[in-house]
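Input record, target 12 of the design panel.
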């Protein structure tokens, strides 16, 4: 396993950013920035005996700072949405930033995606650590977070999340890589299978209402593999509310999803110990320029964000995101790649 690093420029605030790359014996490589613990590139062997970069991203730190979308970033303290940008914990009401209409999204104005992490290379892993101070984005508790990216010689990228806090606090960590198994263009021709029989109903703000819906008989049924584009324009209220697919699936087990593209022959299998996964078909992704000057297009990626259910602080019966003081959190998601 080879490890290298290189300067990646400076933020507007003058902070130096470094890119770290792990490469395995099959030439598969992952590059992670210490800015946002961000997956900047993910080179995967394809059916032409070449390498395809399956993660959308940018060549400069300035582009990451200027553009929206959280491309490749580690998301926290609480990923996805919190309704009304507030939650009650231990009898105390916490008001959060309203950075998604009336809701709180992806940790706030300066979430984990916009801070500098400490990265240490250990064997075949990059260990990213960050101390989120008590009161940051109005969350309680000093929260110590470690995100470990491990690259294996059987072409898997494992992402492990560990956290501990000195006060009770909500935590829901995920990674926001935009996957395109062709390296660019639309993903509507990608085939997707999701191992879930139910998904969360969303309101008009893409916020779960607390109700779970059956996928059977709806455009959200991916129990059998189908192209992402097959039903995305169907006459369906939930599709209209999400601008396409932008919903949390209730996973049936550890195997969450399989994504495949005939264009590259690459198959990606997602495994996790988490109960939910947000499938987002990049309906909010506007046209822009990515790495190497290549265009990034509308619906040009599939995000498969493993997570606790969104709005879990406000929906009775959803898995609780509350991490109790002194309790250690550990969860892991694995992305396995192969050529079909």
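The sequence produced for target 12 reads:
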């Amino acid at each position: 396993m080879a490890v290298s690093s290189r300067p990646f420029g400076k933020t507007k605030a003058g902070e130096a950013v470094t890119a770290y790359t792990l490469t395995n014996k099959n030439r598969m490589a992952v590059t992670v920035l210490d800015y946002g613990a961000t997956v900047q590139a993910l080179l995967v062997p394809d059916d032409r005996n070449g390498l395809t970069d399956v993660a959308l991203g940018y060549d400069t730190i300035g582009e990451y700072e200027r553009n929206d979308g959280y491309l490749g970033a580690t998301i926290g303290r609480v990923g996805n949405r919190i309704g009304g940008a507030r939650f009650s914990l231990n009898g105390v009401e916490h008001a959060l930033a309203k950075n998604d209409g009336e809701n709180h999204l992806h940790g706030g104005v300066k979430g984990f995606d916009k801070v500098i992490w400490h990265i240490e290379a250990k064997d075949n892993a990059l260990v990213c650590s960050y101390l989120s101070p008590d009161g940051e984005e109005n969350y309680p508790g000093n929260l110590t977070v470690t995100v470990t990216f491990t690259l294996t010689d059987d072409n898997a990228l494992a992402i492990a999340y560990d956290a501990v806090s000195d006060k009770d606090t909500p935590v829901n960590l995920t990674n926001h890589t935009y996957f395109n198994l062709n390296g660019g263009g639309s993903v509507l021709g990608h085939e997707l299978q999701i191992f879930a029989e139910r998904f969360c109903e969303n309101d008009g703000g893409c916020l779960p209402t607390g109700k779970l819906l059956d996928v059977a008989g709806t455009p959200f049924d991916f129990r059998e593999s189908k192209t992402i584009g097959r039903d995305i324009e169907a006459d369906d209220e939930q599709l209209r509310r999400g601008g396409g697919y932008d919903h949390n699936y209730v996973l049936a087990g550890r195997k969450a999803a399989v994504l495949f593209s005939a264009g590259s022959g690459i198959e990606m299998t997602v495994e996790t110990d988490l109960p939910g996964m947000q499938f987002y078909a990049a309906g909010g992704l506007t046209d822009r320029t990515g790495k190497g000057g290549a265009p990034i297009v509308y619906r040009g990626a599939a995000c498969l964000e493993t997570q606790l259910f969104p709005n879990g602080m406000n929906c009775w019966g959803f898995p609780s995101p509350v991490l109790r003081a002194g309790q250690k959190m550990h969860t892991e998601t694995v992305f396995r790649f192969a050529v079909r």
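The first strand starts at residue 2 and ends at 10.
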